[in-house]
Specification:
328 residues; alpha+beta; Ribosomal Protein S5, domain 2; Alpha-Beta Plaits; four-stranded antiparallel beta sheet; 12 strands; 40% helix; 27% strand; binds (3R)-3-hydroxy-3-methyl-5-(phosphonooxy)pentanoic acid
Length: 328
């Protein structure tokens, strides 16, 4: 029996609407050209064997029915994804899974979501099950909630559909806006952010100051809706203006940091039309809207202020089967 498949899925960058999207509101996310790669081999032995060096799992092997709490952190998404797939489609088999990433899991590009999408897509191919993008989304989103308890699912959608998406929290609406590379410059702060902690921080503030935080979310929705229209025209200057407005509101929610603000101001000073943090805040990456003629100046400014310039293209292709060798 030879059942061997390789699947890849893109990482993502949040453009507008982070945090508000957790409460069922819309956001805009884009897929990046740095991908997560997953090879799955079907085996006779009823265990899951995983090698995921990028999340410090050189090798981990366990029975398929191992409780999730006994699985090491870096392996949880893969094990939960397999369990959810087997339960949904009433199938089972041993697996040998290897993952490899084009990007560091510290960037906040969504390596957990991308690997989850790769595993579920790969299993559907291995078991000959036709799966729509929405059905794929539902299993992967359940997996994310099983492992981390919170999340809107925007990163899962980016890994599946690719391009730049308008996404409403929980997947109530998922629409592709464009497939173009956007005029963006990306800087990494060097600080790894913990999304769950930051989501809880905003929830806490919302509990103490519900009217203020809900009003901030309503303003964020206006920005997202405006950006949706502007992205169709790739209007860089206007998008930059919206990025600055969105950043101000994220500052108000208390999730920006000195390192993020430092890179954001440096980019604006170097000629970007606008800049903001991307994702949960607390660290990870910032994005700047600027024409390509300004990229090298912004890159230098980011590096001078302690950040790392990340050369990424946006609007990348969603999940895809790279190699397949299956005999039924
Ligand atoms: O930390 P990231 O890049 O995964 O982004 C989190 C974005 C939030 O809106 C804060 C959470 C979510 O799941 O939408």
């Amino acid at each position: 029996m030879k059942n061997n498949i390789t699947v890849s899925a893109p990482g993502k960058l949040m453009l507008f609407g982070e945090h508000a999207v957790v409460y069922g509101l819309p956001c805009i996310v884009t897929a990046v050209d740095q991908r997560m790669w997953t090879n799955i081999i079907r085996t006779q032995k009823l265990t899951i064997k995983l090698a995921a060096p990028e999340v410090k799992i050189p090798k981990f092997e366990a029975d398929i029915n191992i409780p999730l709490k006994k699985v090491p952190q870096g392996a949880k998404f893969v094990f939960a994804a397999v369990k959810n797939f087997y339960k949904e489609y009433k199938v089972s088999s041993g697996l040998d899974i290897k993952t490899r990433s084009d990007f560091s899991s510290s960037f906040g590009f969504g390596s957990s979501s991308a690997v989850t999408v790769c595993v579920v897509k790969g299993l559907a191919e291995i078991f000959g099950i036709k799966i729509s993008n929405k059905a794929l989304f539902d299993i992967c989103y359940k997996t994310i909630l099983d492992v981390q308890g919170v999340g809107s699912g925007f990163d899962i959608a980016a890994a599946i559909w690719g391009g730049t998406l308008y996404f409403v929290g929980g997947g109530k609406k998922i629409a592709q806006i464009s497939k173009e590379n956007l005029p963006l410059t990306v800087g990494y702060t060097g600080v790894k952010a913990d999304t769950t902690t930051l989501v809880k921080k905003v929830a806490e503030l919302k509990k103490i100051k519900p009217k203020v935080v809900n009003s901030i979310f309503n303003l964020i929705v206006l920005i997202v809706e405006d950006a949706k229209k502007l992205l169709k025209k790739a209007n860089c200057e206007e998008l930059g203006r919206l990025a600055n407005l969105n950043q101000g509101l994220l500052e108000a929610l208390g999730i920006s940091t000195f390192e993020l603000s430092n890179l954001i101001y440096a980019s604006r000073g170097a000629g970007a039309f606008g800049a903001k943090l991307s994702g949960a805040g607390g660290g990870d990456c910032m994005i700047a809207f600027a024409p390509p003629t300004k990229t090298s100046k912004i890159k230098k400014a980011i590096e001078k202020h302690g950040g790392t310039f990340l050369p990424v293209k946006t609007g990348a292709e969603g999940v895809r089967v790279e190699k397949i060798n299956i005999k039924r």
